[in-house]
Amino acid sequence: MPVASNTHTDSMDGGHEDNGGFTPPPRRHAIASMACVMLAMFLSALSQTVVATTMPLIIADVGGFDQYTWAATSYLLTATLAYPIVGRLSDIYGRRRFLLLGLAIFCAGSVFLGFSESMTQVVVFRGLQGVGGGAVATCCFACIADLFRPKDRGRFHGILSAVYGVSFIIGPVIGGILADALSWQWTFLIIGLAGIPVFALTARMFPKPPSPPEDPHLDLKGMIALGLALPPFLVALSTGGVRYEWGSTIILCMLLFSLAMTGVFIIIELRARSPIVPLSLYADRVVGLSVAIMLLASFGLYGCVLFLPLFFQVVFGLSAAQSGGLLVPLLLGMVVGGVVAGLMLSRITGHYRILATVFSGLMSAGLYLLSTMDATTGIVQSQIYIVVAGLGTGGIIATISVGVQNHVPHKIVGVATSALQFYRSVGGVIGLAVLGIVLATQFVSSLEEALPEAVKAELADGQLDDWSRDLRVFGDSPSEERLREDLTAVGLNESALVRDLLNSIRNALQESLDSVFLVAFFAAAIAAGLAMFFQVKVRSEAAPGDADDTGGQPRH
After folding, report:
1. Can you tell me the distance from the alpha carbon of 26 to that of 422, in angstroms, rounded to the nearest whole number?
2. CA–CA separation, 95 vs 87, rounded Å?
3. Residue 454: is it exposed, middle or buried by C-beta count within 10 angstroms (0-12/13-18/19+)?
4. Do the bridges between strand 554-555 and strand 546-547 make them parallel or antiparallel, or are there none, so unpaired?
5. Residues 6 or more apart from 440 whose CB is under 8 A from it?
6. Do residues 360 and 528 lie in contact, with contact meaning Cβ atoms separated by under 8 Å?
7. What is the distance between the alpha carbons of residues 20 and 540, in angstroms, rounded to a whole number?
8. Residue 356 clears pLDDT 80, i.e. is over it
9. Is the pTM of this model over 0.90?
10. pLDDT at 344
11. Residue 218 burial (CB < 10 Å; 0-12/13-18/19+)?
12. Model pLDDT for residues 242-282, shown as the tens digit of each residue
C-alpha cells in the first residue's frame, strides 16, 4: 500500500534538497541553550545509574524483592516507548516544549520516588521517570541539529556523549554517598529538586520554536498501537529465561500479541496522514544502515556490560564491587571515542564512511579480544581489550548519529534521531536475551562434557539446568559455600572431588562467556561490514542566511 504523502515526510532520494529553511540561532544563544541541554542530560542519565547502589537499600526498607528487576525494566520500557513518540511530536511542535515537558515529568517522578513506601510505588514512579527521561534524551540529542550547523554538530554531539558517559560513571558513587549520608529517598529527591533550576534555565534560554501547524493531524491511532506492541515485546525479552521459561505460555502470548499489534501498527502508519513513525524514512539507505548498525552495536555493548562483571568474578575471583569497577574503562573508552569521533567529523567533514568503518572495526576487534580471555589473561590486558571495545562503540554511535542528523531534512530530524535511540534500546534488550540463551545453553553443554560420570550420577535431576538459571552463584563466596553444602548433602563428601567439580563449573562458565563475547563479536563484525557502505550526503542549508552573534539577522 503506498504511503500517503504529507508535509513531514518529503522524498529523501538524493540528499541535495533544501534543509527546510534551517537557520541556527545566534551563537551565544546556542551555547547557552546547549548548557541547558547538558544539564538536563546529566540529570536524566544520572537517575539511571544511582539505582545500582540504592536498590539494596530500597529492598531493605520497603521490601518487594520479587519486584527487584521491575524497577529497572519499568524505566527501560517507558523510556523506549517515549523515544519515537516524542521524537515525532517534537518535530511538529518544537523541541523546547517537549524538553520542558520531559524535565517536568522527570522531576515529578523523581520526587514521587523519594516518597515511595512500597516496591509497587517504586516501580510505578520509576516508569514515570522513564517517560520524562526518554523525552529528555530524545530532545537533547535532536536539539544539536536545532542549535548548530551540520559542520559543528559532531563536536557538540561528542560533548553531549561525554556528559552522558560521565554521569553513568559517577552515578553509582553519588548514589552511594547520598544514600549513606542521608537516605535512599533523598537520593531521588535531590535529583528531582535539582531539575527545577534546570527547568527554569531552559525555559528562559532555549529558543522558542515557530508556531506549530494549525492542523497537525496527530497520529493517535499509531501511538496507541505502538503502546500496545512494544511493552509485551520488551517484557517478554526481559523476563524470558529469568522469571519465566522461554517456552512458557505467558512468554509466547506476549510475543504473539506484540507481533499482531506490530502488524496493526504498520498498517496504521501506512495509512496515516502524518504518521508517528514515517515508514518511508527507513527506505532511505543512510537511515536504514544507521538503524541496523545501531542495533548491532547495542547488541554487543549491553552484552559486555552485563557479562563482563560475571567473568571477572568467576575467572579472576574478584568481588562484585571490584568487577564493577573494571567496567569504568569501557565507559571512559566510549566517552573518548564519542568525543574523538565528534571532533573529527567537525574538522574533516564528509568522511563518515571512513570513520564508521574504523570505529566499528575497533569495536569488533575489542569484542574478539574479549572472547579470547581466560584465567591466564591479566587484569591490565583485559582492561586494554575493554578500552578498545569502548573506543569503537562510542565512536560508531557518535558517527552514525551525526551522519543521520546531517542527512535527513531538518523537519524530521527528531524522528530520525529518536529512531536511533529506539533501536539502541531494543538492540540492547535483544542482545541480553540472545546472549543469555547462549550463555545458559553453552554452560550446560560444556559442563556435561567436563563432569565425570560418577559425579553426574550423584547430582539431582535438573541440577545442571538449575545452575544455568543462576550462574552468578559461582562468583559469590557465600553462595558458593552454600553450593558446597548442597554438593556434600547429595553424597559428594570428598573435598577433592568437590573442588574438582567446582573447577569444572568455573571452566565451563568461562567457555560459555567466551562464546557470549564471540557472538557479540559476530554482531559487531556485521555492523562493521555495513559501515563500509555508510556514505552520507549532507543536505545543503538553503536557508535565508546564517545568524551572527550580534542580532541574529541573516548574513548574506
Report:
1. 31
2. 9
3. exposed
4. antiparallel
5. 241, 468, 469, 471, 512
6. yes
7. 10
8. yes
9. no
10. 87
11. middle
12. 677 888 899 999 999 999 999 999 999 998 888 888 888 88
